[in-house]
What does this fold into?
Amino acid sequence: MRSRLVVAMLCACTAFADPVSHLAEPFPPDRVRLLEGPFLAAQQNNARYLLEVVEPDRLLAGFRAQAGLPAKATRYGGWEARGINGHSIVAELAACQTANGDGYVLPVAKRVYEDLRAGRIQAAGFSLNNEWVPNYTLHKVLAGLRDAHRVAGNRQALEIERRLADYLAGIYEKLTPAQAQEILKAEFGGLNEVFADLSVDTGDPRYLALARTVFHHDAILSPLEKGRDELDGKHGNTQVPKIIGLARQYQLTGEPTARDGVATFWDSVVHRRSFANGGHGDHEHFFSPAHFPEKLGPQTTETCNTYNMIKLAGLKFTWLPEATDMDFVERGLINHLLANLGRQPGEFGYFLPLGNIAYKTFSTQNDSWWCCVGTGMENPTRYGEQVYFHGNDTLWVNLYIASRLDWRERGIVLRQETTFPDSDKVHLRIETAAPVHFALRLRHPAWCAAPELSINGNPVTTGSSPGSYLVLDRTWRNGDVLDLRLPMRLHTEPLPHSDGKIVALMYGPLQLAAVIPSAPGVPDPARQRYGDHLKSPGLVPGNPPVLIASDADAALAAIQPDSSGGFAAFRAFGLMQPDDLPLVPLHRIYEEHYAAYFRLYTPESWAERQNEVRAEEAARAALEAATLDRVETGFQQSEVEHGFASDRSETGDHRDRKWRDALPGGWFSYRLAVSPDQPVALVTTHWGGDRGREYELWIDDHRIPVRLPTGPRDAFFEAAYTLPPEVTRGKNHVTVRLAAPGARAGAFSLRIVASAAITAPQWREGRR
It folds into this structure.
């Protein structure tokens, strides 16, 4: 079996096609410098956090502990304290690697990988050999070392990276193909990308062979390479880095299957699975597009996903330079990445909630360190990456971001001055020692009907169409000036599969949000900062605004500019219930409550349904107010944050919801918050087909025998258990365990609520 993997790797080493000819090339990072504008402000805020707040010795604490070196500082809190330490500070990492003596340098116990070497593999979605996503951390470390070498020219970083890769190669090359695929069941970031890059940086094809074999996740990538979209239920940001790796491999090998896999994934996510802000997913997972109307909640659009989709766009652009891809980049960059940065250093958002009534949840400076803190620190450093691309005689201007480009190979400096997206005007100036001929390609956004352009004060007829490039092929001289205006217009964008009954309000590329006043005298969760992002509800109770108009055009006619709010600020007149509200771009929302999607009713349908709609909202608000804690079974973050443990347990998907079951003889458990002095109940969610199932429910040492009540076959239902007061008295947390002595036990979610809440008719008693 091992010989088959070796043969496959040898074939991968020797059967490369010629590298793909790039139609467009990005510029090195040092060639693009941001100028004054909203993106530079965000970048400088991020730099203050990294250079003035973050302490290198605290970042390195986990690495030193693993290597047996004396501590110089304590670890940071949050995810840093739990082993996800994807950071690269080169000289100290070299010391840790030397102490290990074999190339290993991770803040993860080495036994994880030595067990793999011995063929002992326990892999699940977010666990490998009983550690939380060690290969995800491995990818972060390798990628950081790569960037330290490529961007900063640090040769020591490359040597550390290579020694660590060789340590891993010595393990993976001995595995059978089946063992390698088993390991890939656990999240591994983009190991197929960094190993491909290492082959370029070292000239050693061995690393590319590893990228194409042991880090090619067949279960995900093979269907995509064959044109099949099987993403429903999959964890979003577990998949996007794999596709980035596939794109990188296509650049290096020209394999059509890799290109096809990228195309299938891109088309699915961008055109079928994305919200108006450019993000995708709910609770970090892909869902069936048919279920979009059910997915407007507090955990939509994870920031890491959009960050990585934008990286993927940059790779794809090199072989297929399309303006529409850069339209997507613009949308996600403004309405998601820029929108999910706070105004103070170290404030990063995990999700960007699109449900109503929402608020943004930001991290603390020291005790969060979520995955989206890591990518949140990275994304401002990359704002300049895709603004400009070049070919032999072509310069693409893809993004309207104030910046200075040094195209030194052609002797050109291009200055772009703009406050876009807080303006629709762009000023470009060319500086060159001698006249130079090239084609300047300015993106004509899909949202702009007719750009207005002048060169040296003379109007120019553009002749381009939305979603293309405005091409100016001419000889350019020093001091040539271009003034470009990109008029924006109000329009609605229906939520997919909502029949136009749920819409986003857009102004050009900007998603608008209604600003909703917060309740006076009530502690506002939007002003808190969270170590655990799941402790933030993400939504607040209240009646979300709805639009009352005969159709979308009539709704737009009731929205007028609000000059007091600055560019792209509006106010509704006679349109919204319960109140007309101001509308501002989502990226300018900070601690305000907001609505980003709106249900659209005709006056007649609203008259019929308003009481029902408001009653539903009141019931949801009452339930959330009564909830002390909740775990979404099968979802990585929810389970990790609730101390998940199990034996003989598995997860799956049904109707776009995750479930977890204990197999016969197995169990699973969570640690849930309770009230020490108030009666509480446990509410579990099940599918109709589970009715009548029998198992055991344990609250600490208290056993509750369960026989699920009957329910409809084709719907979800809840079972409720009022907990005896003595079980929770004086406690802040209990361990809830579902055990299956002779049959399966499982649920779609578990919720602790105040006992009074279960008098509502939807709860069914589940005891036997």
User: Anything to note?
Assistant: The CA atoms of residues 94 and 714 lie 58 Å apart. The first strand starts at residue 25 and ends at 26. The domain at 628-765 is CATH 2.60.120.260 (Jelly Rolls).
